[in-house]
Amino acid sequence: MKVIGPDSANGRVYLPEALSGALCLYEGASVNLDHPAKGSNGRSVLDRFGWLEQCRIEGGSVWANLHYNPKHVFAEAFAWWAANQPNKLGLSHNAVGTGRERADKIFEVHRIVKVHSVDLVSDPATTKGLHEHEGGDMSQRQKAVKVCDEARLPAVARSDYFLGHLAGLPTEQAMREAVEDRLVALGLKSPASGRSGGGGQGQGGTRFPANAREFAEAVTTGRLPGGMTYEQFQAALFKGTGVRPGQVY
User: Fold this and answer.
1) Mean of pLDDT values over 85-108
2) Using CA atoms, how far apart are residues 7 and 101, in angstroms rounded to an integer?
3) Cβ-based neighbour number of residue 91 at 10 Å
4) CA 87 to chain centre
5) Bigger pLDDT: 198 vs 12
6) Is 38 exposed, middle or buried (0-12, 13-18, 19+ CB in 10 A)?
7) What pTM was computed for the model?
């Protein structure tokens, strides 16, 4: 579910660094029913509905998986809304942030300092509904993951930046071509033979690391595909993403 987007109907905008910097605050955050009464942050035990996990940035917004108590008195009604009218409910955070007011009277949030809770409400200010992702960025991201799976691109070569790059391409064919370029750059596919080997042998016969642990071992021991240096391997990982080696990814 979308937790918070960059633009709020309440006259606020959230800078990208404010959202990315607050992921740790949203992770595990409680989800309550409705916002608390004005002037109070105290919540009844009956308000507590669930919590958030796997918080991440997608399409410039914060997304997370909502886990909720299936025995809660609102659980059955929530499931009905989600299945029939998901745009009637959404998430809205109850948080504290710092920033500045712009000349156009919009408050620009530079940092989210504290998240009291993320509340399930009827009129969220920065999200459109429970399943907003189904018609937008998430469906493109799912296609990107599917293309990577079909091409057997190792998980360690699928950074968030690269998946975001794929999701922004106009067609699945364009995604396939970008993934193929990545496989070739990493030495996992020969342009001449067309054979790929996700998690297999590189051009120089060196086994490509198939997961994060093997990648870390390969970097520290120097056992990289095709005799590559670490710098060459890092450059290959970022090829086509628009991201410079050394950036957080």
Assistant:
1) 84
2) 14
3) 24
4) 21
5) 12
6) exposed
7) 0.49
